[in-house]
């Protein structure tokens, strides 16, 4: 793990723990009504999580997390981040923050769900709620 990636990870964990907790709570609310431990409805996961994050006020806070992450690398943003693509995307795994900075593309993922691929051809993948949020940071 490179120094900027470590710096981003440390900064997010130290300064934005309440946002991570909020994402976790929203993901729990999405998975709670499932009658099994997983679902194959990726749209329900992504759309439901997007809606829950918006209702909790977290979508508007995530661009600030991205700006802080970029600051932790010692770089500057080329444009002000917004709570929509390309800065923020809510996928079936969780929210993803992206910024292009001088060393490359910074990607911060808050994984709340895991994709479980089916070995049988033609079968949809399933989405399983992770135990908490897995923070992944990459500089590509």
Automatic annotation (TrEMBL):
Name of one Pfam family that matches: DUF7988
Which residue intervals define the domain DUF7988 in the entry? 6-139
Domain of life according to the entry: Archaea
- Know the name of this protein? DUF7988 domain-containing protein
